[in-house]
Amino acid sequence: MVHDRRAFIRNSSAVAASVALSGASVPSLAASASDVRSIELLALHTNEYLSGAFWARGKYIEPNLAAIDHLLRDHRTDEMHRMDPRLLNYLHDLAASLGVTGPFHVISGFRSAATNAQLRRKSSGVARKSFHMFGRAVDVRMPDVPTAVVREAAIALERGGVGYYPRSDFIHLDTGRYRHWG
Fold first, then answer.
1. What is the CATH number of the domain that holds 73?
2. From residue 44, how far is each of 56, 73, 103 by CA, in Å?
3. 134 DSSP assignment
4. Which of 27-31, 74-78, 87-91, 99-103 has the lowest mean pLDDT?
5. Alpha-carbon distance 166 to 97, whole Å?
6. Which residues span the domain enclosing 53?
7. Residue 13, CB-side half-sphere exposure with 13 Å CA sphere
8. What is the CB neighbour count within 10 angstroms for residue 141?
9. Cα–Cα distance for residue pair 138/175, rounded to 1 Å
10. Cβ–Cβ contacts within 10 Å for residue 91, how many?
11. Domain count, the chain
12. What is the pLDDT of residues 16-32, one digit of tens each?
């Protein structure tokens, strides 16, 4: 399990209760000081699960970011890297645009240089300077939404990279310039 999962849930619950008590609304895509942004992730290689807020009241929740970094670590080497918060916002907005609350199934988050080199030797589709190596990319699918539909919704958001891998049934999302392939 994620090392700070209880703290993550406790922090998320406290934020949600505080926002609910204040009467603040929670718009799906609009960012405001009263906005609460949540994410639900299942790391397929480690079977670790996490759900809760990563941003509230105009700032990121540091202990929850650390828990996300842990879950999205390189499962081959156990190395962690700070994930780009814009990537978390991208995932949050993608889920909201699809109207789903279920978890993103994560195939790959952060990748160490060694892991990236290993994958490059096996596949020509792995970039030498992959955004994964900088905590700026994630490969995901959603169990209850066709991957092609997730791809189209991600493209419609017009942010970062969107790669589509139908044979492997996942999409790649990154915080680079807007582009799409596959």
1. 3.30.1380.10
2. 27, 12, 11
3. G
4. 27-31
5. 21
6. 5-181
7. 6
8. 18
9. 10
10. 23
11. 1
12. 444 333 333 333 334 45
